Give the backbone structure.
Amino acid sequence: MNEFLRIFKRTFKLFGYDLKKAGKLTLVPLHNQPDPHLKVVYDAFDREPKRGDAVGSDLDKLVVYIRTCLRSNRNVDTTPRFTGASTAETVYRCLRSTIRSINEAHSAEKENQLEVVILDDHSDAPYLLKIKELCQEIQCPWTLKTTRETGQGKSLLEQFELAKSLNALCYFCEDDYLHEPSAIQEMWQFYRQMVAQTGNHLVLHPQECEFLYQTHYPSYIIAGEKRHWRTMNHATHVLWAHSHVVRSYWRYFENTKYVGDRKKRQWGAESKTTNLLFRHIPGFCPVPAVAGHAQFKLSLPPCFDWQKIWEENAC
């Protein structure tokens, strides 16, 4: 934007208007002390893209981290999920749906680089054998690593440590999320769309959190190619972000090591760790969801046909 147009832009803002290049997104100006996360989003769109923090970031490389853990001492076969199946069966179907989504993205992004890292938290041998069998379906490069230590928090921290030194997009995923076939491709596409518009990094969560449809708060809604995306400031530790975000805001990731720690678990909660990212970086989730957490019926997002995905991924 040249200096002449910048002067017009500043002038129009005094009257509540904005000036954008044709085809670019613009957001309604904020009034009356809006939610802090909305100001973060508005400011991202209000900057010149060349000033954004995504300059020099590789958006054509994606690493998908999937954390798995199936051990008999965690009651995987005695505590059925809302699906009516055991935790082990639920994980197998979710993992297969994630792999199929990875393969669809790999096929669509032939010119780009996609790899998968399975971080397994010391699963029992029979379960690990099945996990390895399912991973044979992955069509891009993949590795399976055993975590250094057992525990949910320890594996969370390890995946973030692995990502910290990269220059790549990262999808940090758990083994009990059911994914639409297009999920990973759509998140990749939307991320690039937003960086092209703003020049800034963002954070994605594949579904609306339970909190978002119990306690509604103001959001911007943006049209993606296949669905809409809403701004949010609540998510779980299942996140899509760039490795530069992990490195720049490491203070919001390192205490995830306390997740599952009976004495210090409150320090590892999302509200004390990764949700603090939304004070600095726009957060978005898709409407309807591209994935759903197959843990509790209450945790599923609205308008998400989990049964169809469940049936299509029988093992």
User: Anything to note?
Assistant: The longest helix spans residues 87-108.
